[in-house]
What we know:
The chain has 271 residues and is of the alpha/beta class. The protein contains 12 helices and 8 strands. The chain has an 8-stranded mixed beta sheet, sandwiched between helices. Helix 7 crosses helix 12 and helix 8 packs across helix 9. The longest helix is centred in the last third of the chain and has 21 residues. The site of NADP nicotinamide-adenine-dinucleotide phosphate has 26 residues, from helix 2 and helix 4.
Amino acid sequence: xxxxxxxxxxxxxxxxxxxxxxxxxxxxxxxxxxxxxxxxxxxxxxxxxxxxxxxxxxxxxxxxxxxxxxxxxxxxxxxxxxxxxxxxxxxxxxxxxxxxxxxxxxxxxxxxxxxxxxxxxxxxxxxxxxxxxxxxxxxxxxxxxxxxxxxxxxxxxxxxxxxxxxxxxxxxxxxxxxxxxxxxxxxxxxxxxxxxxxxxxxxxxxxxxxxxxxxxxxxxxxxxxxxxxxxxxxxxxxxxxxxxxxxxxxxxxxxxxxxxxxxxxxxxxxx
Length: 271
Ligand SMILES: NC(=O)c1ccc[n+]([C@@H]2O[C@H](COP(=O)([O-])OP(=O)(O)OC[C@H]3O[C@@H](n4cnc5c(N)ncnc54)[C@H](OP(=O)(O)O)[C@@H]3O)[C@@H](O)[C@H]2O)c1
């Protein structure tokens, strides 16, 4: 399925909040005609109203793709409008956290091609990472189409099993918030050492952004990058001796952090 097929058969977007808008922005910028897009959202933003997409109109009978981007708690109310498209050629692609493929199969029909995706918030600036997994009716072609669409907001990786989705949620789905908190803590620590709050925040934020970019672009492992900047008995080593302590440092803390998020993801999936 190419972008031309999607343009010809139509794309339905159910829910156009932060995640839906980020993706729609990418597709429109990438050349998808606004006239091929049908959006359902009870409170459309000014930006959305100005795009020229079909807004809260009747939906095509058999669109190429339906992207489901409503909050999990709105799902039961939102899905029925999609029922006529189930068990056919339409591919359902969901970015909702915690709603399982089995739930969609139950509501939309077990013969429907369904792909579940877990993006993260850097998608808003095209720097997200999204993991995808399809049901038995999702073909290689469907997965390729989902990957093409989701590439509009960043990198895409494929999973082997839906059970991995909870771990993905705990690492990359919730991960940006962990890093934001790292920035907050680094800035607070700088303030505690006598820097102004503005300066401390600028140093912390730019350091995390720069280190992240270096980790992506240098071709060396994060471990090697760390070793490269740690001179024996120097300042970085003094700091890392605290941070890397196996009993009280970051390793056990991050392990518990991710485990808590993964457990919560499992709980949400089980209702
Ligand atoms: N944001 C993230 O980083 C992120 C990451 C991973 C996964 N996700 C998933 O992406 C999904 C969307 O998240 P979001 O952050 O984009 O949430 P959001 O900004 O609240 O967007 C959801 C949109 O759906 C609309 N909506 C509510 N009921 C609807 C209905 N019956 N029919 C059609 N549209 C309806 C909402 O309108 P109202 O505002 O008027 O209710 C809102 O515009 C969630 O399921 C979330 O789990 C988000």
